[in-house]
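User: quick one, fold this
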Amino acid sequence: MLRKIGFLLFFMHLASAQSPLPLIPQPKQALIGKGDFTLDNDTRVFAEENSFEAKFLIDYIEKQYGIKLKKTSVMPKEDVPVIAFNLQIPDATNFDREYYTLEVNPKRIDISAAATNGQFYAVQSLIELLPTAKSKPFKIPCVQISDAPKFKWRGMHLDVCRHFFSVDFVKKYIDCLALYKFNTFHWHLTDDQGWRIEIKKYPKLTQIGGWRNGTMVGHYNEQRYDTIKYGGFYTQQQIKEVVDYAQERHITVVPEIEMPGHALAALSAYPELACTSGPFEAAKGWGVFDDVFCPKEETFSFLQNVLSEVMDLFPSAYIHIGGDECPKTRWKACAHCQGLIKELGLKDEHGLQSYFITRIEKYVNSKGRKIIGWDEILEGGLAPNAAVMSWRGTEGGTAAAKLNHNVVMSPGSHCYFDQYQADPKTQPLAIGGLITLEKVYSFNPVPEALSTEESQYILGAQANVWTEYMQTEDDVEYMVFPRISALAEVLWGTADPTRYDDFTNRLSLHLRLLDKWKVTYCKVPFKN
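Assistant:
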């Protein structure tokens, strides 16, 4: 009852307040109190000795405010201002690791959770409550928050194949995901335009496939190219560094290794894996290309060896195997492929793709992992244990959920952050389309066509950041922000499209934090 009262008071306050709290995503339940907690060098941090969450907060406050908080494993006396990390692990084996409470009163701040995930999310909320101005004293408003997310998969994607980005930027990207309480980073590491992950058994993948001999200039419709060699890749040590960095911030990195299509970069290094003799080169332009992996034994051996190294680097439950936009042109003209269709009694090339994905799934499952792929993996029959990432609308995800398969929604209508976010005449070059901040905020990941039982298979959603038209790190940030904030609130489960103005009021305050972090974002009025 107390939580319900607090929840109602919170919204009553926001309805009448001129300066709402800049919390995004909005907490499920919150009560604004009277007064402030003053943050200064006398403040102590009470936490377990090895608490990363406490260290994260201490480091952040020192970096941003120059205040060196002292950590202690002994609770200070009552008259000492303290930020207390309370870990209360329940007896039950099945509990919400992401639930937390945050209570700020004039004398102390209490962060309570059943797991470190929840503690970390409480820290992110506290960071949002910290003042953005440099003027002292540093005051934090008194609040009581009880909070937990609705969806299990709260994701953001980044394509590093069309354009390559540094490890430092990837870490900054992860920091931004952490701020908004995302828990999944989908790293798109291979494609026609470049192979970006070191595979020790196949060094030519990065030596040759990691580089292209030019890049499309301007819009796709213009078909113009430069002749500048372009590329790059991440070493396995760098991959481990990023995975560890994300893991500390309670973010799972899901790698994507594209197959059977989007394979030109790999074929440029190992042409024997194609249906024809080539030669091949990493694509200079964007789009879909006919040359794909040929489903022969040496291809499966190659991909299994690649995935073995990938799974050694990424502890994620899911491995993304692509599966999208695989033309059947080469398979239709390939004697081996046609013979295999007859030998296996398959209906057509779509059945051959299903055979391809199913073989890969069996291998991944044998290593204790699961596959997830774009919704084209439904064609020809869905592999037995596969999860579907639905991008061509929500229909694929709906069909998969009705078959009792897990689904991540990522429809191009709401979740493709490579599309324009305002009038194209006022914006940097993009692929086309229009997805405004308000449209993202209106997104509902659970289709109405699903029953209550079927809806349980919707794990959540993510936004995709394809980088054909994003050459620089600033370009990526501009296309992601502030739309990521709207998606964060959708996935947390507190978005209310009828109260969009409330969201933008909070966002206008929240943008000060992005300024403090030196994040580039679109400043077009939010209602456009």
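User: anything notable?
Assistant: Residues 349-366 form the longest helix (18 residues).
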